C-alpha cells in the first residue's frame, strides 16, 4: 500500500471500557453502607474504522452511545482497552519522541464547550501560545505573530489577544478553541459536538469556518454530532454508532438516500424536515439501553420494528451491502 492510500487514522477492533462512575446518589448510598456498582461500562465495543486523508467523517448516534469516547481514543486522550490504533500506518502506542509528538499535535480535539476547555485565568495570547512554549516549537519572539495569524485565520482581529475567555461570546470562544488547535499545525481535527452549544445562526458560521480551514489546509475531520442536519451538510462519509458499535457507514449521500440499518432509518425519521410539512414524526421506540447491561445479540433488537428471533441471539457483523456501504443487520443476511 502506498503512503497516499494509508489512512490517517485506523482503528482495528478497538474497545474502551471504564469502571462504572457512581453518580451522586450512589455515592451517598455508599456512605450508608450500600455496595457501589462496580460493573464495567463498555463505551466502545469493537470498532473497525479507517479515516482517509482529507475526508470529513461524520459520527452520529444518541447520547451515551460512545461517540465522545471514540473521538478521545482517536485523539490519543484515552488509550484503547483492547485493539489497535494506527496513526499514518504506525501503531500509536509504539510511537516515541518526535513521532509521538507529531501524532499528539497532529490530531487536535475541538470540544463542545469552549468555556470549559479554555483556562479562565489566561489571556487569549497565553492560551494560544502555550503549546508552542511547552513543546519549544517556536522561538518566543515569533509567538505573538503566530498568535495574530491564528486569530486572523479564525476571523478574529488582534484585539482579542488581551481578552480573557469570560470577556468573549460563545461563538468567538469556539473560534479561540479552533485557533488554539491551529497553533500547532495539525492535519486532523476531532470535533466533538463543536456547535451543539451555540445559537443556530452562530452554528452556521462556525461550520463554514471548519469548511474554509479544510480547503486551506486539507484537514481531515472526525465530526461528532447528534445533529443529522449538520452532519449531512459537511460530511463526505457518515458512520452511525449504537451502544459502542458502528452499525452503518457509507458515503453521506448514500446514507441519506438509502439508509439500510433500522436504527439509521429511525434516526432519519426523527429529523423534523421543514421542507416537508405535515410529515409524521416517528420517535425511536424506547430509550437507548445502558452500556452497563447491553441487550444480547443485536443490541438494537429491543427497539427494532423488524426484530427477528436471530437478532436476540447473534450480533450481526458489518456486511458490505453496496460499494462503500456497510451495515450490521440480519435483514441483509436472510
Ligand atoms: N471516564 C469515564 N468513566 C466512566 N464512564 C464513562 C467515562 N466516559 C464515558 N463513560 C460512559 O461511557 C458511555 C459512553 O459515553 P460517551 O460520552 O462516549 O457517549 P456519547 O455518545 O458521546 O454521549 P454524549 O453525546 O452524551 O456525550 C456512557 O455510558 C458514559 O457514561
From TrEMBL:
<dbReference type="InterPro" id="IPR027417">
    <property type="entry name" value="P-loop_NTPase"/>
</dbReference>
<dbReference type="Pfam" id="PF00005">
    <property type="entry name" value="ABC_tran"/>
</dbReference>
<dbReference type="InterPro" id="IPR003593">
    <property type="entry name" value="AAA+_ATPase"/>
</dbReference>
<dbReference type="InterPro" id="IPR003439">
    <property type="entry name" value="ABC_transporter-like_ATP-bd"/>
</dbReference>
<comment type="similarity">
    <text>Belongs to the ABC transporter superfamily.</text>
</comment>
<keyword id="KW-1003">Cell membrane</keyword>
<keyword id="KW-0813">Transport</keyword>
<keyword id="KW-0547">Nucleotide-binding</keyword>
<dbReference type="GO" id="GO:0005524">
    <property type="term" value="F:ATP binding"/>
</dbReference>
<keyword id="KW-0472">Membrane</keyword>
<dbReference type="InterPro" id="IPR013563">
    <property type="entry name" value="Oligopep_ABC_C"/>
</dbReference>
<dbReference type="Pfam" id="PF08352">
    <property type="entry name" value="oligo_HPY"/>
</dbReference>
<dbReference type="GO" id="GO:0016887">
    <property type="term" value="F:ATP hydrolysis activity"/>
</dbReference>
<dbReference type="GO" id="GO:0055085">
    <property type="term" value="P:transmembrane transport"/>
</dbReference>
<dbReference type="GO" id="GO:0015833">
    <property type="term" value="P:peptide transport"/>
</dbReference>
<feature type="domain" description="ABC transporter">
    <location>
        <begin position="9"/>
        <end position="268"/>
    </location>
</feature>
<dbReference type="InterPro" id="IPR017871">
    <property type="entry name" value="ABC_transporter-like_CS"/>
</dbReference>
<dbReference type="InterPro" id="IPR050319">
    <property type="entry name" value="ABC_transp_ATP-bind"/>
</dbReference>
<protein>
    <submittedName>
        <fullName>ABC transporter ATP-binding protein</fullName>
    </submittedName>
</protein>
<keyword id="KW-0067">ATP-binding</keyword>
